[in-house]
Amino acid sequence: YGWIVPELASREHVRNIVPIVRAALEDAGVTFREIEAIAVTRGPGLIGSLLVGICYAKSLAYALSRPLLGVNHHEGHIFSVVFENPPVQYPALALVVSGGDTSLFWMPEPEQYHLLGHTRDDAAGEAFDKVAKLLGLGYPGGPVIDRLAKRGNPRAVRFTIPRTSTNDFDFSFSGLKTAVVRYVREREIRPVREGEEVPEAILDLLASFQETVVRTLMQRLSRALEQYEARTLILTGGVACNSRLREEVFRLGRATGIPVYVPSPPLTTDNAAMIAAAAYPKLLRGERSGWDLTAEPGLRLHQVDARHVSRALHVKGRYG
After folding, report:
1. Minimum mean pLDDT among 93-102, 143-152, 227-236: which range?
2. Taking the CB of residue 13, how many other CB atoms lie within 10 A of it?
């Protein structure tokens, strides 16, 4: 299909959730009775897939008489750094880059999220997928573009860094995607057929497109560092697997002396471990979700939309 079909995704969740949970327990060497709590993603995401997970989690929690905790998917991504890094030092900046959303958060304290900017249209990962589909490279597009872009010239095609008119930290990638479509049509570049060698023109186009996406993300992150105190930089979400983006974020960390936390690829993409990690401090505080827990496809993470409040609350120096 070249894209996620919500109905088919839901059916696959129904078909696979029971055997996957059983396999996870076997790998961990634990039984259902040894589980202390049940954590589940409540949003954001595709409502059908979310409901499958929530219904299963509620049934399991009820049958085992265990606490149930609903977790924000984006918070899970941020917590994915806890497995392989020292404790996060606050305040922190977190860039969450995935197929469905691109958001930049300032975190003055643990589990406090101030939204600095988010995607207004296509997310970064979505742009990767659509460009890959346009050029016949399959789905998901991120990994294949990352691999092929290494063989291209990132300066071959000049794309303008997407700009937003009213906010320094919001993201917009629909214009860049349109520019790629126009470039392909004007130069009559045809999609790659299966088994065919990728031509140099497409390699250069992919490298230039990827470089523009990375420069856009880094521009927002660098600007945020100039205005907001940060003792840790966090990069997470599926697009954080991109080798060029990782390279630039670590370069920024070295230049500023700020530690950079990026999960390893298995923990960067969607996974259950990050949801459990995000639920754990809530469990310790005695938080519980009720049996009325349901899917929230448009669930937000932030408590404060920093785009609409005075920056005097967040500027550098307060934590110095």
Report:
1. 93-102
2. 18
Query: How does residue 22 score in pLDDT terms, banded at 50, 70 and 90?
Result: very high
Task: Give the C-alpha distances (Å, rounded to integers) separating 298 from 47, 71, 214, 302.
Answer: 9, 13, 26, 12
Question: For 29, left (φ over 0), alpha (ψ -120 to 50), or beta?
Answer: left
CA distance 113 to 72: 12
Q: Is the pLDDT assigned to residue 222 strictly greater than 80?
A: yes
* Amino acid, res. 294: T
CA distance 307 to 117: 7
Is 242 buried (19+), middle (13-18) or exposed (0-12) by CB count in 10 A? buried
Average model confidence (pLDDT) for the chain? 92
Q: Strand runs (DSSP E) across the chain, as ranges?
A: 38-43, 68-72, 92-97, 102-107, 114-118, 232-236, 260-261, 304-305
Q: Could you tell me which residues come within 8 angstroms of residue 188 by beta carbon, excluding any fewer than 6 positions away?
A: none
What pLDDT score was predicted for residue 164?
64
Residue 273: pLDDT over 90? yes
Q: Phi and psi (nearest 5°) for 214? A: -65, -45
Q: Which fold has domain 6-77+268-300?
A: Nucleotidyltransferase; domain 5 (3.30.420)
Cα separation, 238 vs 262, in Å, equals 11
Contact call for residues 274 and 267 (beta carbons, < 8 A)? yes
State how far the Cα of 53 lies from the Cα of 56, in Å rounded to an integer: 5
Number of H helices, E strands in the chain: 10, 8
In the sheet where 304-305 sits, what is the strand order? 260-261, 232-236, 92-97, 102-107, 114-118, 304-305
Residue 98's pLDDT band (cuts 50, 70, 90): confident
Rounded CA separation 143/132 (Å): 10
The amino acid at residue 134 is L
Dist CA 256 CA 231 (whole Å) = 10
Helices 243-256, 141-149: inter-axial angle, 10-degree rounding: 70
